[in-house]
Amino acid sequence: ILDVRAPAGHFVLDTTRQTPVVFIAGGIGITPLLSMLNEVVESGSRRETRFFLGVTNESEHIMRERLLALARANEHIHLQVYYSDPVGEIEEGRDFIYKGRVTIDVLKKTLPSNNFAFYLCGPPGMMKDLTRGLKDWGVPDSQVHFEAFGAESVKHAPTPAPATPAAAVLTVTFAKSNKALKWNGRLGSLLEFAEANGIVINCGCRAGNCGTCLTAIKSGEVSYLQETGAQPEPGSCLACVCVPKTDLVLDA
User: Which of 18, 90, 97, 191 has a Cα at 20 to 30 A from 68?
Assistant: First the structure.
């Protein structure tokens, strides 16, 4: 049996505005960003578009011909691809290829200003460095959009859950694991609470987007720490971004 869900999430291009845009991809993080780049082209938009891709070398240069074709056919699209460990010598600038990594210093050197909408998707280290660098450069949080890429990826600060009365001690029961535990809010989400107690809940993005951690609620209610991309099915929760609101029994 193969479980299939409809596309979900908030990492989408804002097509209602014509703000200049910067796409920054690392490795397979190109997947959603190439889709956005295609949208810019196919919609006929003339918004200034900068596309940065970081890969190890030519063997990992994903969608090379497609990117080249788009950059050569559209003067408002500017492409730069960086090889962190090229095989042999490369002619810098040929086919928009350069040696190095996509860093905040590269952006400052290349972009005329920081007045762009930034969209990022890539490995954790790259994401953390760039989001921190963009913040230090004075780019508003509202102009920085990214796709969470696993447990160590950068996340926006979550919205605190409604406070539980001091006298209330909640119990979280994991039915399949036959464990009833006193809730410890210092551990973060229900997923992190489960992991700290040796209970396995499948997970992916850990940011409420992919839906992998969807867990059935047998009884009780939860509160969400942030807006979710994936929509939880009735009678279930996304364990990676929620906490118990009442005593809770989960099918885990």
Answer: 18
